[in-house]
Input
Amino acid sequence: MKLRVKLFATLRNGRFDIKEMELPDECKVLDLIKLLKIDQKDAAIIFINGIHGDFDSLLKENDEVSIFPPVGGG
Output
């Protein structure tokens, strides 16, 4: 299946901003994160088509996945 992946902030370092990807059917967000070699603790916020997702969310054809690192502030 094809999907679009957007990485934000420090997750872009050494990777990409936006990328079209081809993944096997029945992939979950965790499978994508492992494929991208992102540590699970570094993928703190996940959106699928603008809706909050999690590591167990099943991905579908043409989904848009946005992955954010933990947000800090002061």
About this structure: The chain has one domain: 2-68.
